[in-house]
Amino acid sequence: MAVVNLLFALSVALTTAALPSPSPAPVDARDLISIPDALTTAPWYGAPENNFSCSSTTHPNPVVLLHGLSADDQVDLNLLQIYLNKLDFCTFSLTYGAHTLAPWIGGLKPLADSAVEIADFVREVLDKTGASKVDLVGHSEGGVQALYVPRSQPGISDVVEHLVALGPAMHGAEYYGFTDLWYIGGNVTRDAVALVLKTVGCAGCDDLAVGGETTKELNDGNPVVQPGNKATIIMSTNDKLVPPEKSIVDEEGVRNILVQDTCPEDQLGHAGLAWDTGVWGLIVNALTEDYDAPVTCDTGLTF
Ligand SMILES: *[C@@H]1O[C@H](CO)[C@@H](O)[C@H](O)[C@H]1NC(C)=O
Ligand SMILES: *[C@@H]1O[C@H](CO)[C@@H](O)[C@H](O)[C@H]1NC(C)=O
After folding, report:
1. Which ligand 2 atom is the nearest neighbour of the CA of 186?
2. What would you measure as the largest C-alpha separation in the chain, in angstroms?
3. Nearest C-alpha to atom 12 of ligand 1 is from which residue?
4. Cα torsion 107, 92, 39, 297: sign
5. Which position among 48, 211, 241, 266 has the lowest Cβ density within 10 Å, counted as fewest Cβ atoms?
6. Where is the signal peptide (predicted)?
7. What's the 53 CA to ligand 1 centre distance in angstroms?
C-alpha cells in the first residue's frame, strides 16, 4: 500500500484515539498493519525464515534472536542472523510484543507479557529442533529480555546456556530516540513508527524507563543472571541512548565488554550495535566461549 495512505490512516487514528491508551483505535486496521514500502525495499530489510529442520554439527545450541524496541524480526538482528547462518549456527527469530494494529513494530507491550511470548518461542524451538538448550542474543529491549526471560519465566534458565545482551537498558533508559533504528527506511518509516507509537501506546517504553516496572524488578537486589547461564553484556562508549553505566550487570561471572576495548576506533552508537562486524565477532566469541578469537573491527553506525 502507498505510504501516503498509511500516514493518512495514522493521522486519523491519532486524532480520534484516546492517547496513550493501547485500546483499539477507531481506524481501519488494514491501513495500519501494512509495512511501508520504503522499509521493505531498504537493503537492510529481511531475515531468513525459521527453519526448524536446521541442524549444526559445530554449534548444538540454536540461537534465538531478540530484536529491540520498535523493531521486529526483519529489522535489527536480521543481518547478524545471516552472518551466524554462514558460520553454521542455526538461528531463530520472532517479533514479540507487537500490537495487532501494527504487527511489524515489536516490543511495545509490557515486558512481562513479551517475556511469556519469548519463553513460549524458546520452548517451540527446543521442541521442534530437538536441541536441549538454546542461546539468547538480544539488542536493547531484546538484550533486557535475554536476561529477564530466564529470570522470570519458569524452567527457562535450565534450557538456556549463553546469554548475549547488546546495550540492554538494565538500569532505566531515558529512551526517546529508539526510532532512530527506522532511519533505514528513511524519514518515512521513522515518522510512521512514531505515529504508531503515539496511537497504540508503548507500555514497554514505560517498563524500561527509570522507575519502570521491569527496571525495578531487575534491580530488586537479587541476582539477574541465573545459575548455569553464561552472560555477556556488549556495550559501546559512544552509546548515547543506553550508555554503559545503564547496561552493565555487575555480578560475578558476568562478562561486561566494551566494544572499544577490542576495536578502539569504532564509534558505534546504540542502533549500531546490531550491525557492526566487530560486535558480531564478539557475539560469536561469547557463543563459542573462544573469548580471545580475533574479530573484524568496523567503523560503526554512530546513531
Ligand atoms: C531447512 O534445513 C534443512 C536441513 O538443513 C534443509 O535441507 C532445507 O533446505 C532448509 N529449508 C529451507 C527452506 O531453507
Ligand atoms: C529527514 O528529516 C530530517 C529532520 O526532520 C531532515 O533534516 C532531513 O532533511 C530529512 N531527510 C529527507 C531525505 O527528507
Report:
1. 13
2. 55
3. 51
4. positive
5. 211
6. 1-17
7. 6
Task: For 136, list phi and psi in degrees, rounded to 5.
Answer: -115, 130
* Shortest-distance ligand to the CA of residue 56: 1
- Does residue 217 have a pLDDT over 60? yes
Q: What is the residue with the minimal CA distance to atom 7 of ligand 2? A: 187
Q: Which three cell numbers stand for residue 10?
A: 495514522
What is the value of pTM for the model shown?
0.87
Q: Lowest-confidence range among 41-45, 117-121, 131-135, 150-154?
A: 41-45
Distance from Cα 180 to the centre of ligand 2, integer Å: 12
180, three cell numbers: 532512530
Burial class (CB in 10 A: 0-12, 13-18, 19+), 45: middle
Question: Of the candidates 65, 88, 85, 87, which has an alpha carbon nearest to the alpha carbon of residue 76?
Answer: 65
Residues across the chain: 303
pLDDT for 80-136, tens place per residue?
999 999 999 999 999 999 988 888 889 999 999 999 999 999 999 999 999 999 999
Give the SS3 label for residue 72. Answer: strand
Give residue 144's pLDDT band: very low, low, confident or very high (50, 70, 90): very high
pLDDT attached to residue 22: 44
| DSSP state at residue 275 | G
Question: Does 20 sit behind a cis peptide bond, omega within 30 degrees of 0 on the bond before it?
Answer: yes
Query: What is the third-level CATH fold of 2-17+55-288?
Result: Rossmann fold (3.40.50)
143 C-alpha to ligand 1 centroid (Å):
28
d(CA 41, CA 142): 24
- Structural domain boundaries of the chain? 2-17+55-288
Does the beta carbon of 195 lie inside 6 Å of ligand 1?
Answer: no
